[in-house]
Automatic annotation (TrEMBL):
Family: Belongs to the exportin family.
InterPro entries named among the record's database cross-references: ARM-like, TPR_XPO7/RBP17, XPO4/7-like
Keyword Protein transport: yes
Subcellular location: Cytoplasm; Nucleus
Superkingdom assignment: Eukaryota
Entry GO terms, CC: cytoplasm; nuclear pore
Any one of the GO BP annotations: protein export from nucleus
Protein name: Exportin-7/Ran-binding protein 17 TPR repeats domain-containing protein
Keywords: Cytoplasm, Nucleus, Protein transport, Transport
Length: 508
């Protein structure tokens, strides 16, 4: 216990008197973070007077780190500081709202002072507050403090205390800040990251009660922030060398936030359409607008942007295919083109995600073709007919993707063969004639003495496979593909896919 007292006293001393040294602060906060993680150590720590002092006096008066004298870059330490404090607070917090409110007093004072300042702003073009450095730093510091707490509050009780403190009293202040400073990444980046953290169902902390509207309310607020930022950033002209910092980074965080919200399993999205609420529609539409503002080359050039985009797209294909199928033809074709490019990505997670997304899309298309002509609701039939007509007009897109997948499986190492097999069956069933053409060209490209063996391997690939996408049929095809690839690896010879490209003209 004495050693813990000494360590904590040293930490507090460093935070009080060594704030000018970035190295000291960074290592001190890292130590504080490590100590706040272990359950046994935390229960001992919260009993110390030094820790109680820390929990009750986290103000700039005692800890200069929390003031506005530091650079914006150094303010990121505040998130780490409040993450540790949040973990320490949770040990004895339980459902004690008074204890939580007492802890939040400094943050409450900060957000209310910022709110009072923003209330004096006459309009978006009012530069009086925009150029106020102190106001800007105070806002950034508050946002980073809240993000640290949101990260550490990974239980349902603690997170809901934070959310109910934030909503509805203070979320309008944060939204107003986004309206004013949408072009300033020093504010928009931490603010978007705060909402991305709030929307993340970490440790199932957002599994709200059936009678609670908090999940829907949280999604509404996240949607407002994304739409406010997106609609404004679309009209912002940015130089190429500043494109990622001032625009693409924020868009990437928006994609991450939407994925966290859509895949969090804490919102019944059917409620929005049922009651005429356009929250979900607005969020999905701004995703499309943001996506179309990004050239495909930029989408693939920036790794973080690629990861968040393909992750969100996988989520949409899984649960919101009706929305994707209702998109304008050029938008849907752009998405398919991005999937085709992603299949060749060096990042295996992106490639695997594209396989999953493609599988959802192909499965949806296959099911709609089966439903065509059957008695279904008129509205749904009209939507599906438009979607299918688009695909019929652009047969070359799926053919190109089929060729890409076959190319990867046959001529490359293909470390995610199982993932590749999932959409491949559907692509073959949707393009049987074209698949047969590809097979014949591959056979003809082989030496004469190996054509027979290659033909047998292709027959093995489809042996026992029926014309459906049932789970058992998929598994059979996956097993066949494994055997097919094994034979190719051990006995086959590589050929250039260029010969295939040259002989088969893809209709676009």
């Amino acid at each position: 216990m004495m050693s813990l007292v000494l360590v904590k006293s040293t930490c507090i001393t460093n935070l009080k008197f060594w704030c000018s040294s970035n190295t000291v602060i960074q290592k001190t906060l890292a130590l504080l973070n490590d100590l706040s993680v272990g359950f046994s150590s935390v229960r001992k720590l919260v009993k110390l007077d030094e820790i109680q002092f820390l929990l009750n006096n986290h103000t700039s008066e005692h800890f200069p780190l929390l003031g506005n004298t530091f650079s914006v870059k150094d303010m990121r330490h505040r998130s780490s500081f409040y993450t540790s404090l949040g973990r320490l607070l949770m040990i004895d917090l339980l459902e004690d709202e008074d204890k939580f409110d007492n802890f939040m007093i400094p943050l409450t004072a900060s957000v209310e002072s910022i709110g009072a300042l923003l209330a004096t702003v006459n309009g978006v073009n009012d530069t009086s507050v925009y150029s106020n450095i102190e106001a800007k730093k105070a806002l950034i510091g508050l946002i980073r403090d809240l993000r640290g707490l949101a990260f550490s509050f990974n239980t349902k009780t603690s997170f809901m205390l934070l959310f109910e403190w934030l909503y509805p009293s203070y979320t309008p202040i944060l939204l107003r800040a986004m309206e004013l400073w949408y072009a300033d990444p020093e504010i928009t980046t931490p603010l978007l990251k705060l909402y991305a953290e709030l929307a993340l169902n970490r440790s199932q902390r957002l599994q709200v009660d059936v009678s609670s509207p908090n999940g829907i309310l949280l999604f509404r607020e996240a949607s407002k922030v994304v739409c406010t930022y997106g609609n404004n950033i679309l009209n912002l002209d940015v130089q190429q060398d500043m494109l990622y910092k001032k625009k693409l980074k924020g868009i990437s965080i928006c994609f991450s936030m939407l994925k966290a919200a859509l895949c969090g399993n804490y919102v019944n999205f059917g409620v929005f359409k049922l009651y005429g609420d356009d929250t979900l529609e607005n969020a999905l539409n701004i995703f499309v607008k943001l996506l179309l503002s990004i050239p495909l080359s930029d989408l693939l050039h920036y790794p973080k942007l690629s990861q968040t985009y393909y992750g969100l797209l996988e989520c949409l294909a899984q649960d919101h295919m009706e929305f994707l199928s209702s998109l304008e033809p050029q938008v849907f074709l752009y998405i398919l083109s991005s999937i085709s490019e992603g299949l060749n990505a060096l990042d295996m997670s992106i490639c695997t995600g594209c396989c999953t997304t493609l599988d959802h899309i192909v499965t949806y298309v296959f099911k709609q073709l089966l439903l065509k002509g059957k008695k279904v609701r008129r509205r749904m039939q009209q939507v599906n007919e438009i979607f299918l007509r688009t695909l019929e007009t652009h047969l070359g897109v799926f053919r190109q993707i089929l060729q890409t997948v076959l190319n990867i499986i046959i001529f490359e190492e293909c470390r995610n063969q199982w993932s590749m097999s999932r959409p491949l069956l559907g692509l073959i069933l949707l393009n049987e004639e074209y698949f047969n053409q590809l097979r014949d060209i591959i056979l003809q490209s082989q030496p004469i003495d190996k054509q027979t063996a290659m033909a047998q391997w292709f027959e093995m690939l489809m042996e026992g496979v029926e014309r459906n996408l049932a789970s058992r049929n998929r598994e059979r095809f996956t097993q066949n593909l494994s055997s097919f690839k094994k034979e190719l690896t051990e006995k086959g010879s590589a050929i250039s896919m260029n010969s295939v490209n040259n002989e088969v003209m893809i209709t676009t």
